[in-house]
């Protein structure tokens, strides 16, 4: 079963909040363009002849490719190339490598850290025209597809065959599977199906010099040395362009149940989580936390009413999925018990698709509801469960004298992924300085990760040191320099500026 989560691309186009977007080079004046070649008329003619006029984008249409959906990053690329095949990608990169032209790799452009946006005038290589499903094996459950396939389309395709894609994202209507791999996206059901790396059996990628690395394995077991596919999962387009993917898909669970529960404290949330995981370990597929600020934002700005008491401090959405119907009866008994024990204060349960979707809409509309205030500082971090929410009241106190509309925390408690959001009327340097680098220092002090799902991209590059040791960063640089010595792939991403040029 899949759910109709919000489409982030539609989100910012219908919410006209950011009219004047400052160029990244102006916002960060100390940033320097690398010594890359500038595209000339000869290059333009080559690109047109290779991908065709219809897949060579220039002029006003390029603007949307130059901005992220939060409107926090803005480049000034003049050209977008939309290859349809691995061979075309290979030809593009071989040419750019020889000429020294920088290339920005872009999928669905739904990231939050500027990883798929040009910083200066890099040529944009969009994978959106590479959207073919190549094969699906009903016996093994292995899907092979091109990198530009939209996640929701893949979900619908395998669902018709009795299977599911083993992860789900709020941006599924826009995000592309290649971008999901490039950022190692986690999503809503990691607690049951594990990380994306574990579900990807193989991939095909084009290196900076145009060589095609074919690791498109469809076997579950292949113990033959280095698993090179892992270099590209989470590499954010800095090592190569992923063009094809093989994914292991599990069978669709026959029964799904969703509960929406209210609690008075985070300690109660942790107690409830431990009990749920112990009672429903094999069928627990999502455990989402939302604080009262997030719920009130959805009610006020979107108009979706909370289905239970709306005056509580915390809410959780629990999804169970299984091949037998015991979960519906068991969850009712379980909730009655914890209600009597005052671990929870209120709850409602749904096992029909339309009712399930209504409960999910509350969680899925939190990001849009916060954007309605004007601007949102978004932080995607991982923390140990016991410290999962501790940073939220800390940030509230830190910002209490500034013009902030809302500070809230929500996210995937099951895997420790907190979405910390600070909503304001507009972008403000004083507020930004009060949050960063404090939020990353805090996360590091509590042994967390500064990026749970969206990667490092451009915006977090100078904070990489808070999650990686010097040795780890040094090894990452060596890999980058060996595979892409001219550094033409997604420059200015992951590594600080001084480490790239």
Automatic annotation (TrEMBL):
**EC number(s) from the headed UniProt entry:** 1.1.99.39
Name the Gene3D superfamilies for this protein: 3.30.465.10, 3.30.70.2190, 3.30.70.2740, Uridine Diphospho-n-acetylenolpyruvylglucosamine Reductase, domain 2, Vanillyl-alcohol Oxidase, Chain A, domain 4
The reaction(s) annotated as catalysed by this protein in its Swiss-Prot or TrEMBL entry are: (R)-malate + A = oxaloacetate + AH2
Q: Name one GO molecular function term.
A: (R)-2-hydroxyglutarate dehydrogenase activity
Keyword Acetylation in record:
no
Which cofactor is recorded for it? FAD
Identify the keywords attached in UniProt to this record, alphabetized: FAD, Flavoprotein, Oxidoreductase, Peroxisome
GO cellular component, alphabetical, reads: mitochondrion; peroxisome
Quaternary organization: Homodimer.
Q: Please give the PANTHER family that the UniProt record associates with this protein.
A: D-2-HYDROXYGLUTARATE DEHYDROGENASE, MITOCHONDRIAL
In Swiss-Prot or TrEMBL terms, this protein is called D-2-hydroxyglutarate dehydrogenase, mitochondrial
Q: Which organism is it from?
A: Melanaphis sacchari
């Amino acid at each position: 079963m899949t759910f109709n989560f919000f489409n982030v691309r539609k989100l910012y186009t219908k919410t006209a909040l950011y009219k004047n977007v400052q160029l990244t080079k102006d916002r960060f004046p100390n940033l320097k363009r690398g010594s890359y070649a500038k595209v000339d008329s000869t290059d333009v003619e080559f690109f047109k002849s290779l991908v065709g006029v219809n897949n060579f984008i220039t002029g006003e249409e390029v603007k949307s490719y130059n901005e992220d959906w939060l409107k926090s990053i803005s480049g000034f690329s003049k050209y977008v190339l939309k290859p349809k095949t691995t061979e075309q990608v290979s030809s593009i990169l071989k040419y750019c490598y020889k000429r020294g032209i920088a290339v920005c790799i872009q999928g669905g452009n739904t990231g939050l850290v500027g990883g798929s946006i040009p910083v200066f005038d890099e040529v944009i290589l969009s994978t959106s025209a590479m959207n073919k499903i190549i094969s699906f094996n009903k016996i093994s459950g292995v899907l092979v597809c091109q990198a530009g396939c939209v996640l929701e389309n893949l979900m619908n395709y395998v669902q018709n065959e009795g299977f599911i894609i083993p992860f789900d994202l709020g941006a599924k209507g826009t995000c592309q599977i290649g971008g999901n791999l490039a950022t190692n996206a986690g999503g809503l059901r990691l607690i049951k199906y594990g990380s994306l790396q574990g579900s990807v059996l193989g991939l095909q990628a084009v290196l900076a010099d145009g060589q095609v690395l074919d690791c498109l394995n469809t076997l579950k077991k292949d113990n033959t040395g280095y698993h090179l596919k892992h270099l590209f999962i989470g590499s954010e387009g800095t090592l190569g362009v992923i063009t094809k993917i093989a994914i292991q898909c599990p069978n669709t669970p026959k029964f799904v149940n969703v509960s929406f529960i209210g609690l008075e404290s985070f300690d109660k949330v942790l107690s409830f989580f431990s009990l749920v995981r112990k009672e429903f370990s094999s069928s627990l597929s999502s455990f989402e936390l939302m604080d009262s600020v997030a719920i009130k934002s959805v009610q006020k700005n979107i108009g979706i009413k909370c289905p239970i008491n709306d005056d509580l401090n915390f809410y959780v959405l629990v999804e169970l999925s299984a091949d037998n119907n015991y979960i519906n009866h068991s969850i009712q008994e379980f909730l009655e018990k914890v209600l009597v024990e005052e671990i929870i204060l209120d709850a409602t349960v749904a096992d029909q698709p339309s009712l399930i979707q209504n409960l999910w809409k509350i969680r899925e509309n939190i990001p849009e509801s916060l954007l309605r205030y004007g601007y949102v500082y978004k932080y995607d971090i991982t923390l140990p469960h016991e410290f999962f929410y501790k940073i939220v009241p800390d940030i509230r106190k830190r910002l209490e004298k500034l013009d902030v509309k809302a500070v809230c925390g929500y996210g995937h408690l099951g895997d420790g992924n907190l979405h910390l959001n600070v909503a304001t009327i507009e972008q403000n340097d004083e507020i930004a300085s009060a949050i960063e680098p404090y939020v990353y220092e805090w996360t590091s002090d509590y042994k967390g990760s500064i990026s749970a799902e969206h990667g490092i991209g451009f915006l977090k590059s100078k904070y990489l040191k808070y999650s990686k040791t010097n040795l780890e960063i040094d090894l990452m640089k060596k890999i980058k320099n060996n595979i892409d010595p001219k550094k033409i792939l997604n420059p200015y991403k992951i590594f600080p500026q001084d480490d790239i040029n």
